[in-house]
């Protein structure tokens, strides 16, 4: 019980250093652009691939399991859209990114810690926490809404490909269902939740990497702890945000 409370206190203190006023904005901006490319743009491929197949699978499962003479044919498209908007493209996709991006951040900062690069920055008078972590947090929060948009469109395209090529249903019915009773607020809900999840992924993973003590084995353990902790916090915050935004 003592260790989680201690870690939470260290996390709050680290975030206080992270959000201190930057010394040179130009240096931070360059780092920010690099982090957007490394954490966001490099994740587009896996987001598109997973979302495409998940959209196709959701469409097939709904068609096979809720098909009924009493059920309108467009319900498949409607349900697929709601699942993609409300949960998959924000919550589940961020869980997947917690594994890819979170481990990347934790291992990168952990390696810098054990090789004493962070200590060198501190000796030179640089606020190493702010310089290394703040661009990652802002960069990931900038790119996450874009990844959510890609995920939604890829999932819908996957559903359409299933309807066209697998022939499980009429593509016109699927299109009508996707457009039926569309609520714009659900898209904004996805964006809002994804911003919170992006902050959790970047900050928690950076905390475990930045506070590594030991050698290369400790870096591997920090990466694992970062992914597990980020995933649990994403699920917990998803529960709270769903209640607040509904």
From TrEMBL:
Superkingdom per UniProt: Bacteria
InterPro entries, per database record: Permease_MalE (IPR030802)
Kinase found in the keyword field: no
Transmembrane segment boundaries: 39-62, 146-165, 185-210
Entry keyword annotation includes rRNA-binding: no
Pfam (any one): MlaE
Keywords in alphabetical order: Membrane, Transmembrane, Transmembrane helix
Protein name: ABC transporter permease
Source organism of this protein record: Phocaeicola intestinalis
